[in-house]
From TrEMBL:
Organism: Pelagerythrobacter rhizovicinus
Lineage, broadest ranks: Bacteria, Pseudomonadati, Pseudomonadota, Alphaproteobacteria, Sphingomonadales
Domain of life: Bacteria
Pfam families: Hydrolase
Record's protein name: HAD family phosphatase
């Protein structure tokens, strides 16, 4: 998805997970649970993306993990792995997007990001990813305790980044986040793959 707004774009704002980096809870837990049906059940009932999203929203692991262990005591060791081995849920970068970031940076386009990411996991992850050095500022939901698609995180980002929403292009894989930004006046791109994004950026004269 791209939009038809004609305002010049002064800055490009990326999502991080599933746009810049791959993220999949299965990448970790497939190492720890051999039975495929048990793995599916665990990811659907114990360490779910919905439960994980509480950390993205600002809830500390010290509250979440013991509470979950009380519900699923037989999975305590796996819940410890969730808390301590989170980097293993990130297999690598999303193919092709890093090259687009580099091309935008080389052209002097200001780069920013808004990410739903838990504060504790962000502290583990951020030092490992040099691509993020290209970004002037990154708004992290777990640090701010507000998450996409809440309007407040977009308002905070616009204030921090110093550009009007209608002059920024926001790129996200999550339709709800894209629709929220669109409704707040941002220019938007619903990310599916790097090739489609490349065409959109080229049409906009950004690369």
């Amino acid at each position: 998805m791209s939009d038809a707004r004609s305002d010049p774009i002064d800055a490009v704002v990326f999502d991080v997970g599933r746009v810049l980096i791959q993220w999949d809870l299965r990448a970790l837990f497939a190492k720890l649970i051999e039975d495929a049906e048990e793995l599916d059940w665990f990811l659907a009932n114990v360490v779910t993306e919905e439960w994980h999203f509480q950390h993205d929203g600002g809830r500390p692991l010290a509250e979440m993990v013991p509470e979950r262990k009380a519900e699923f005591p037989e999975h305590s060791a796996l819940l410890d792995a969730y808390a301590t081995r989170f980097l293993e849920t990130i297999p690598g970068r999303v193919p092709g997007t890093d090259a687009l970031v580099e091309r935008l940076a080389e052209r002097g386009v200001p780069l920013f990001a808004i990410t739903n990411f838990g504060a504790e996991f962000w502290a583990q992850f951020r030092p490992t990813e040099t691509l993020l050095d290209r970004f002037a500022d990154i708004v992290v939901s777990g640090v701010e305790r507000i998450a996409k698609p809440e309007p407040a995180i977009f308002a905070l980002a616009a204030q921090r980044f110093g550009h009007a929403p209608e002059r920024m292009l926001f790129i996200d894989d999550n339709r709800a986040n894209v629709d929220a930004a669109d409704g707040l006046g941002w220019q938007v791109h619903h990310f599916t793959d790097a090739d489609t994004l490349q065409r959109d950026l080229a049409e906009r004269g950004l690369i």
